[in-house]
Predict the structure.
Amino acid sequence: MSSQKQDPVKRIAAPDILARKGKEPIVCLTAYDAPTAEILDAHCDLLLVGDSVGMVVHGLPNTVGVTLEMMILHGQAVMRGARRAMVVVDMPFGSYEGGKEQAYANCARVMKETGAQGVKLESGPTVPETIAYLVQRGIPVMGHVGLRPQAVLTEGSFKAKGRTDDERLRVMAEAESTADAGAFAVVIEGVAEGLAREITEAIDKPTIGIGASAACDGQILVVPDMLGLFDWTPKFVRRYADLRGDIDRAVAAYAQDVRARRFPAEVETYFSKQPVSS
């Protein structure tokens, strides 16, 4: 046991999430910075440092351009803000598809440099073998099936999956192989309720839905979407706030006060403690 002072707050870890299968729904949200993570931490079981950061923070057209360095930077920020929730970092496109050894080196770097409790990989034909390799070497892995944003360039668009028999079979097979490989949970994105329910019943790992109905063991949303930061949001998002409107109104009021010289007022101004000598 280390002699260093231990944090009294017990952080949620992969075994805790795994144990929630079929029990109280798991609350997850994305996080990209320290102050937001600090707010979310009191309410969430798991915070995902998603590669969606490329689109919602950096303004990229998709997630393909996200780099490992970007994910590490945002992972470090989230870890500074979160004390209780499990923090999982998305592995970006190109960081794990080249082979098991490449995947391990990059995942180990993310774990070391951020202090996160796990990583997430989008599943595909070759990924379950990589997941097993990582898990055997001590890296907790969350899988991701259904709509896979990193595959947008080969699939052409962000379309819901599992609408044909062939797609349903493929997504189901990916979910089962991902769970069998040792993933502690599986994100299901953009699939019909029936398929999400089938997957949730078929695998022994918790499923986390995003556009996959309430049939899953938990739910996740992209925080800027659910807080109403953008004019448009996907069908599956429920807006819990109008942050874009609030920010617009606040900035408009500030601009008006500056132009009218109402800001700063006396209460916001520093004055000398002693009279200035003449």
Notes: DSSP finds eleven helices and eight strands in the chain.
